Amino acid sequence: MASSLATLTADSFEPHRGETFTLVARGSELALTLAAVQRLGNAVRAGGAFSLQFSGPAGPIVPQATYPLHHAALGTLELFLVPLKPENGLSRYEVIFT
Question: Domains in the chain, start-ordered, CATH in brackets?
Fold first, then answer.
């Protein structure tokens, strides 16, 4: 069961920091950990704008695109991931909700 992107807020993700989200790309799976949830201020969406930062293995790094990410409680979410500069030997990605 997938959650509706329109109704998700930072509060929807807060309890899942440190948990694994599985990204499916090109027939393979990549485990990403939800590393941070950051509130960004006011936005058109109810609950305000926020960002999610994920970390994963050093490689492979997937390019910027929309990917299905599966989480046990939230279901499968189609999210637009942007790769960030690697840090501490981990790849990093960001998703922004506005």
Answer: 5-97 (2.40.10)
